[in-house]
Design a protein that fits this description.
Elements (H helix, E strand, L loop, with lengths): L7 H12 L3 E5 H7 L1 H9 L1 H19 L9 E5 L18 E11 L3 E11 L5 E5 L19 E3 L5 E11 L13 E7 L11 E12 L12 E12 L13 H12 L3 H8 L8 H14 L4 E2 L5 E2 L5 E5 L5 H11 L3 E5 L5 H4 L1 E5 L5 E5 L1 H4 L4 E5 L6 H5 L2 H5 L2 E6 L2 E6 L3 E6 L12 H4 L4 H4 L4 E5 L5 H19 L9 H4 L4 H14 L6 H24 L11 H12 L1
Parallel strand pairs: 1-2, 8-10, 13-20, 13-21, 14-17, 17-20
Antiparallel strand pairs: 3-7, 3-9, 3-16, 4-5, 4-6, 4-7, 7-8, 9-10, 11-12, 15-16, 18-19
Helix pairs in contact: 2-3, 3-4
Length: about 575
């Protein structure tokens, strides 16, 4: 196959020869333009054609380099087709080539698996070799009619390849409301092992196969089969600020660009966040939540140090001020959203846990913050969490990684997620007679990691109560009317529907990476120095007063992130 004057695959074979890594990637689009009938056959009979592709690649490699003898090539395929949903994998598609995407939930250890088994008879010494598919086989009797001896496996003469088992979970945005996410086993081999860690978003091409899941104790259930995917190629999708792979049509792109050119887009987006929640106190919160959804820009410095672009927000306040409703809306509006409650979450459930499999080996399974990589994790009842569990997310909030050193497994997982937390004050309600520090029952170490902290108070004011009551009644009355009869107000006509808001946010995160201008940077740094000086002067005048510094470098970085958003 040639693209113009370039012999693409001849060059790839030469590269394999030079690097001694015998892995070649074939693009299905190239195959389609070469021979469309071959693509159809590959799709419906992948096992036969995959071995043919590898055989031909080995022959060609030997042709261009005679010194390389008996090297096994591995051929993988990449495709531009849209992935299928995991819960739509029908039985008719068994033993066909399919493409799905999801999040890697757990990664097993790499172990050798025999592809060719050599036997030797214990009596007559006759040897034979059997090609095996990846699975268990029954040791045959000696085929010498006179001897009828027992065959013994010669482990040193068997052919092995490295294999690894992964567990793939469907993306949170593909799970229907109220249902648990599905998962499927993946089997990767040779050069595809050790490519991913838990929490990585991947796109997988593979052969849908069935695994016999019956046990000796359940002979009657031998017809039960567990689906698994024999992986042909695995692509990591963790690129850019937004790590969910979403396709935009030309019409959608034009619509997004038109929305972005609207001078009042900021006000419209703010009004579109949880429109059923009203009140003066929610205006600033909604502006901050919009900034959190869009996020700042993640930066990697020349020496490899990474500066986070994700914004963390804490809503601290009285009961019945719609904190949980805001969290639920943000979870749905975010491109990747995970909702969890502080009371029902442990440190391992939020970060990562080590689990023992059926063979007694340990493997790593990512928690809620690892699965929210690239999105927002909403933690309700943040103050009800045990202190031990809350400390576990310190590293995830600032360094955006989770370090694990358990049961002989030492690794670092990515956790590039924003945290939106809701909590109540120490006495249940906010006490006006005490200052802010006495009302908030959280350590300063975790408070400094939040970019914005909102004190949400239920102020008893007749006019304010009347407005909120009128709005709540309006929401209930309009919800009960039919769609045709409901009269939308002038405000609601400017609101952007939730699905369009989600797409617009995804588009912005995917296409924009703003940087702060010099003028804006000078204003922010000047204000930072001014506030610090004011505190120093106060301490000089009143030596006995509290030495708490209200603003640190973390808050200055928070202002930069908010400005970029």
């Amino acid at each position: 196959y040639r693209d113009g004057e370039n012999h693409i695959y001849l060059y790839k074979l030469s590269h394999c020869r030079d690097t001694k890594e015998f892995l070649m990637e074939v693009n299905i689009r190239h195959l389609m333009s070469f021979n469309s009938d071959l693509v159809t056959r590959l799709k419906y009979h992948p096992k036969d054609f995959l071995s043919l592709f590898e055989q031909v690649a080995e022959e060609q490699l030997h042709r261009i380099s005679a010194s390389i003898i008996s090297m096994k090539m591995q051929v993988t395929f990449i495709s531009d087709e849209r992935p299928q949903l995991m819960r739509k994998l029908a039985e008719a598609k068994t033993n066909t080539l399919i493409k799905i995407n999801g999040i890697i939930l757990s990664v097993g250890k790499a172990r050798p698996t025999a592809t060719e088994i050599s036997f030797s008879c214990s009596k007559c010494g006759k040897t034979r070799t059997i090609n095996t598919s990846l699975g268990a086989i029954k040791i045959p009797k000696c085929d010498n009619g006179i001897c009828n001896g027992t065959n013994i496996i010669m482990a040193s003469k068997c052919q092995y390849i490295d294999t690894q088992l992964l567990k793939l979970q469907e993306n949170p945005e593909d799970v229907p409301p109220g249902e648990t996410p599905r998962n499927i086993l993946l089997m990767v081999d040779r050069y595809l092992i050790n490519r991913v860690t838990p929490g990585t978003r991947v796109s997988v091409m593979g052969i849908l196969s069935l695994l016999d899941s019956s046990t000796k104790r359940m002979e009657e259930s031998s017809s039960i089969r567990t689906p698994f995917l024999k992986v042909v190629n695995i692509e990591v999708e963790n690129n850019g600020i937004n790590r969910s792979h979403i396709y935009f049509t030309e019409t959608e792109e034009r619509e997004m660009t038109k929305m972005a050119q609207d001078p009042k887009i900021y006000e419209k987006l703010v009004r579109s966040i949880a429109p059923q929640i009203s009140g003066e106190y929610t205006e600033d919160i909604k502006k901050a939540l919009l900034c959190q959804l869009l996020g700042g820009t993640r930066k990697v410095l020349p020496d490899g140090v990474k500066l986070r672009g994700d914004i963390n927000i804490l809503l601290m306040g009285d009961p019945s001020t719609a904190k949980s409703q805001l969290l639920k809306f943000i979870e749905k509006a975010a491109p990747i959203g995970v909702y969890t409650s502080g009371k029902g979450s442990s440190a391992a459930g939020l970060t990562a846990s080590v689990i023992k499999d059926s063979k007694g080996e340990f493997f790593l399974e990512g928690g809620a913050m690892v699965l929210a990589d690239g999105g927002i994790i909403c933690i309700d009842e943040f103050d009800k969490m045990r202190e031990v569990d809350r400390v576990a997310i310190h590293e995830a909030m600032e360094q955006q990684t989770i370090s694990v050193a358990k049961a002989g497994i030492t690794t670092v997982l990515n956790c590039r997620a924003s945290v939106l937390a809701a909590a109540n004050p120490i006495f249940g309600r906010y006490d006006d007679l005490k200052d802010v520090g006495e009302n908030i029952d959280l350590m300063t170490t975790i408070l400094s990691r939040f970019d914005c902290i909102f004190i949400v108070r239920d102020v008893r004011d007749a006019e304010r109560d009347r407005n909120i009551a009128r709005h709540v009644m309006g929401v209930h009355i309009n919800a009960s009317l039919s769609v045709g009869a409901s009269s939308s107000s002038a405000a609601s006509s400017q609101e952007i529907p939730a699905d369009k808001l989600k797409k617009f946010i995804t588009y912005c995160r995917d296409r924009c990476a703003p940087r702060l201008g010099e003028e804006a940077a000078a204003v922010l740094s000047g204000q930072y120095v001014h506030i610090r000086n004011r505190v120093r002067e106060t301490l000089a005048e009143k030596p006995g007063s509290s030495a708490a510094v209200p603003i640190t470098i973390r808050q200055l970085e928070a202002l930069v992130r908010l400005s970029e958003a």
